[in-house]
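Researcher: Here's the sequence for the chain we discussed earlier.
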Amino acid sequence: MLAAHDLVKNYGPHRVLDGVSLALKPGELTALIGPSGSGKTTLLRALAGLEKPDQGIIQLGEARFDGAVVAPEGVDWPYTGTAAATSPAATPPFWPQVTVVFQQLFLWPHLTLRENILLPARNLQGRDHNAALAHWVKKLDMAEFIDRYPNEASGGQKQRVAIARALMLRPQFLLLDEITSALDVQQTARILEFLPELKAHGMGILLITHALNFARQAADQVAYIEGGKILEAGPAMLLNKPKTAALKKFMQDAALAS
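Model: Thanks. This is the structure I predict for it:
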């Protein structure tokens, strides 16, 4: 289990997370929804060990971390995630058991897409990276473009590369930060349809998303966050029958915008 317990995070006078608790289980998909600025990405970064909480505890299995000890020695906060590709000593404390795919993707422009996928995995010894790469190239249908450079690939192709790069690490938990927000409907469907397969193999997934129909169909748990607080959480059916006025309004606004 990967869990946050009573997390508090402040940016100056602004409280971004205000006593947030959330548990992710292996083999389950949790959809995290909420308006912009509600604390979704900050919570994701804290769960990944990329954001140091001011208060509260993050738990991965039997290991427990608080704001005083979460950073590995020699790593400054906030951690951007880019050093993990080249320096094992500069990786966050939960890596690679917890791996993140960000909306920004962070692909190195001077490396091919194949090289981008392989780069972080080279820090992990004793694994057949070529066999794993061949598996994900086939599974994500990337053979046609895998040896292009990032500027030669579409947004959907680069998104698949970023997902494959994360999966090469064989994480226990995969955290996805609005990975389909810049994609068209067809590309979004292609990526979202792939997630239940990962869940079926025991991977725990946290997906920050505005794709509410997908959350209804595929999520085991939905959590609604607003103002740094999780106001409602439970099975995906809560999207059909929200209990709080805040979630009701959010669902109404989403329906009007669709």
